[in-house]
Amino acid sequence: MPRADHRPSRRAFLDVTGAMVAAGLTAGCTSVSAQPGRHGPTAAATPTPVAATGRHQAGITLPQPAQPNLLALVADLGATVAAGPLLAELGQTIRTLTAGTDRRLLGLPPGDLTVTVGVGPRLVRTAGAALPGAADLPRFSRERIAPRARGGDLLLQICASDALLLPVAAAALLDQAGDRIHERWRQSARRGTNVPLGNGLTAPRNPLGFIDGIVGPHTAAEQRRDLWLAGPPAVAGGTLAVLRRMELDLPRFAALSAAQQEAVFGRRRASGVPLSGGPVASGPDLGAKTPDGRYVVPADAHVRRANPTVVGAGLMLRRSYGTDDPAPGLLFISFQNDLRTFTATLTHMDTSDALLPFTTTTASATFLILPGFDRQHPLGSQLFG
């Protein structure tokens, strides 16, 4: 369920973070990080710090692979709050948190902590109605979304290998914002174990047991074409994000045979190989047929209905995280430089995708992920001055 408005006080901040630290010390928590080429995190691993500043914000393509734990926090700005000064303060707080110099981190090592900030369509329109990110996300089928779980002005995507860092960093950011923002909803989530795909790429399994995020803009050329915004200058280096929280009908999916589950996705469950054969990372042969004339990859298989070539849209950098509160499900995040990439894909899926009947969307939003920042160019300064 969406959370009530959150107006953090310093006392509330200390209560929340103090309790989290005590719980972590009692449990003996340690930071872990999945590394390229490994099948999963190692307890003794030390996460490599991720620079908060640069042309692009951290938490999208860096680190690689993505950290296993995420907290997405969606909020609104007060009616009279100026976005520019608030974003600049949040950017400064992100720098001190990731550097480990912010006292509100309570001495916890930041490890590979990243915070990625996006602004919703309402705020983008105040800077320019024609700017990328100014359009609201349309409504689709199979949605059961409360008003407070649709849309929003501000996204804070907080990721780390150490799950203990997420609520502590969120409390620090909310403390910095004070009563200038009002929380709509938040979602904690985690990624599955990374599976090697070849060519140095890895991807995790989703809660349905299948490897997720195989297709995407992985090369620098693909990212320039489909991920990063090239202009106007106020948004260059940013991207567009879509968040969709879904409940999954896990018992009904689990009742299917392995072959039926593979027909839903169009890939082998164990390996991720397309039903038409070939390497894991290769696209399926959608024209391949059985001797009796049936498509090897079923007509309603997810990999066919969501295929960029079939849809006629670009590639999405997709992330899927498992959730168990408020219900077992999935937090889906995609990054792309054209909102149509997502809307055209889901519209195509809506007509006939075997995966959708197992999902119900309970939260939905889109955000302009701001360009990167540094000391000379505060977060959001290109867009809001």
Task: Write a structural description.
By secondary structure, the protein is of the alpha+beta class. Helices cover 26% and strands 20% of the residues. The chain contains eleven helices and ten strands. Helix 1 packs antiparallel against helix 4 (165-177) and helix 2 (83-99) runs antiparallel to helix 4 (165-177). The radius of gyration is 21 Å and the shape is globular. The protein starts with 9 loop residues before the first helix and ends with a helix.
| Largest sheet data | 8 strands, antiparallel
Choose one word for the global shape. Answer: globular
Q: In terms of structural class, how would the helical and strand content be classed?
A: alpha+beta
> Cα distance, first to last residue?
36 Å
Task: Please tell me the overall pLDDT.
Answer: 90
Poorly predicted ranges? 1-42
**Element-level helix/strand string:** HEHEHEHEEEHEHHHHEEHEH
Beta-strand fraction estimate? 15-25%
- Count of individual helical segments: 11
* Helical content (DSSP H or I, runs of 4+): 25-40%
Number of strands: 10
Spatial extent as radius of gyration: 21 Å
Q: Which strand order does the major sheet show? A: 4-1-3-2-10-7-9-8
